[in-house]
Design brief:
Blueprint (H helix, E strand, L loop, with lengths): L2 E5 L3 H6 L9 E5 L4 E2 L14 E3 L1 E7 L15 E9 L1 E2 H10 L4 H4 L5 E3 L4 E2 L9 E6 L2 E7 L7 H11 L7 E3 L7 E2 L5 E6 L2 E7 L2
Bound molecules: magnesium ion (MG).
């Protein structure tokens, strides 16, 4: 199972990171052991002092596909969810500065929080979903999939040019503005519309 994450897919987040808006999708991967099982706390790792949350809509692939045309992308998933792309911002800054790969900042154990249950997309307008995250009850991120630079179908098509997508693969579709640091004791809750999708305790 692959975890594929999109970087800079919302212009307002690219701006807050002082990054340019990409002309083609930018993606990176997390290892399978990055997945934080629903209901499990996130343990603040000792190798970082600046872990950030990035709340993201997650697409679960349910059919094998390669070189998928954008117009057929909808046939390759039937459920959508919400998760957190936890990022060691301090290590990421060092990696960026040196031009090194990002794995230590992005693909560490437990760095991909995921919802317990996904929502069927049938009857859902996936390109117009509202999602949000709270930190200790305060709203910190609020996004709309209509603000994505590259749509879910464009992302599926693009990724599948480079690698076969398989059943169970997860695509984290990028985060809107409002990313920030977490602290031990935090409670992070994610919502699609009004529906609570995940609750993660930081220990
Ligand atoms: Mg992200």
């Amino acid at each position: 199972m692959k975890i594929i994450c999109i970087g800079r897919n919302y212009a307002d987040h690219a701006k807050e990171m002082n990054s340019s808006v990409p002309e083609v999708p930018m993606f990176f991967m997390k290892a399978d052991i990055s997945l934080l099982r629903p209901g499990t706390p996130f343990f603040y790792p000792s190798f970082s002092n600046d872990i950030h949350y990035e709340c993201e809509v997650v697409v679960k692939i349910d059919r094998v596909g390669k070189n998928i045309a954008e117009r057929f992308a909808h046939k390759y998933y039937s459920e959508i969810g919400l998760g957190i792309d936890f990022t060691a911002r301090d290590l990421q800054a060092q990696c960026k500065k040196k031009g090194h790969p990002w794995e230590i900042a992005k693909s560490f154990e437990g760095s991909a929080a995921i919802c317990k249950q996904f929502i069927p997309v049938e009857g859902l307008d996936v390109e117009n979903l509202q999602f949000s995250m709270t930190q200790n009850g305060d709203g910190v991120q609020n996004g709309k999939t209509s603000d994505m630079i590259f749509t879910i179908h464009q992302l599926i098509s693009y990724i599948s040019k480079f690698m076969t997508l398989k059943k169970g693969d997860l695509i984290y579709t990028g985060t809107p503005a409002g990313v920030g640091p977490i602290a031990i004791g935090d409670e992070l809750k994610g919502f699609i519309g009004e529906k609570e999708m995940f609750r993660v305790l930081v220990k």
